[in-house]
Amino acid sequence: MRIELTREQMEHQEKFREFVTDEIAEGAGQFDREEKIPGEVIKKISEKGYLGSMISREYGGMGWDSITIGLLNEEFGKACSSVRSILTVHGMVALAIQRWGSDEQKDYWLPRMAKGEVIGAFGLTEPQVGSDAKSVETTAIKADGKYILNGTKKWITMGQIADLFLIFAQCEGKVTAFLVPRDAPGLMIKPLGGLVGMRASMTAELKMEDCSIDEVNIIGKIGTGLSHVALSSLDYGRYTVACGCIGIAQACLEQSIRYSRERIQFGQPIRKYQSIQKMITEMVVNTEAARLLCQKAGYLRDIGDPDSIMQVWTAKYFASIMVNKVANDAVQIHGANGCSREYPIERYMRDARIAEIIEGTTQMHEILISSNAFRNY
Amino acid sequence: MEEDKIKIRKFLSRFFRKRELQDDEDIFSLGFVNSLFAMQLVMFIEKEFGIHVDNTDMDLKNFSSINSINQLIQGKRVA
Fold first, then answer.
1. Which of B43, B46, B51, B54 has the highest number of chain A CBs within 10 A, making it the mutation to test binding with A?
2. Is the pLDDT of residue A255 over 90?
3. In 10 A of CB B52, how many CB atoms?
4. What is the rounded distance in angstroms from the CA atom of residue A188 to the CA atom of residue A171?
5. Residues of chain B contacting A368 with CB distance shorter than 8 Å
6. A120-223 in CATH: which number?
7. Burial of A165 (0-12, 13-18, 19+ CB in 10 A)
8. ipTM of the predicted structure?
9. Which of A24-33, A136-145, A335-344, B34-43 has the lowest mean pLDDT?
10. Which fold has domain A7-115?
């Protein structure tokens, strides 16, 4: 067994770091305050091909392995979780099309998504439906070669700017996935703001009132929306969120080390105090543990192992809890400065909080991981 | 073909430990599997038998028993 990045993966990692430092890190605080990612930043991400990172080369994407995609999300997460979130939701839609779409859907949408000409967003959550996804209330009825959708989707990341939505609706009483373009008649988009974290993820509420789409816009078959389409998309979503958590934790760690060296109290740098050393130690160990869990998940994904699904649940569970502890400790080390906008630490803490909610709450992870354990042992 | 069935049965036994599955038994009606099972099964079939399951195969009938999974695999091999 070898646990090390390949030369190519390390080269990618270096390029991701350069890009993030040059184009994202400095503006992250402003994006957070303005609750918006500037169009030129998304354009630069597109130009680098990062929006095609998960799309196969056949359709103009980068076709990167899961470890490289994990590195991309870690580096983006280190700078700005909101910007990172576009990689997750855009990828979830692209992969749903690539995995379960028709040839026509793949040929039409994937090259556009790989170039960033079309941005995707994932529409599962509703005002009354979160974890209990099979109970979505949005409906889809077939009529005259069209599907007519009615319902509301809420907290849709990148919903304010997305061109294409993957919408889950009850069709013949079974959850089914549909592609809904932004310009579909009957689709109304309302920006949502004021989130505790990932404030620039440009979330929106989608209201569909007799929203009409062509019947060819179904993804997969009637009734396979959750079991196949959403599950495979969410697997990628959870993996990228987990890797993003490592990025936040790494940023907290590095800034806490820097601050501990510079901050003088009682005549010496605070790094000399054992209570600070303990917090730094726990940050180092927990961040590394999460990274290893994610790398194992990435490896299993790449070899197509069925156990990769549970490994991703495990990695995301640990990483999202871990990053909240790490970010909390980073605030503690920074004291009042950690509570101020003058430092990015408070943003990391707020962004970390979101990670325990999205792509499956911590509690849903506990149900699935424990039931899997009771079955296996 | 019988070898393939043995592999399928071995994989399914992880989910149905306390039950000796019959070849024609509907695995979805037994209530042992959770929401992740369908994708785990697809990944198992693809990895173990080197075939690609796509949107045209997305009929639960193709995955509902050891016999039907085996038929899907044999059909994909011929194609």
1. B43
2. yes
3. 9
4. 21
5. 34, 36
6. 2.40.110.10
7. buried
8. 0.91
9. B34-43
10. Butyryl-Coa Dehydrogenase, subunit A; domain 1 (1.10.540)
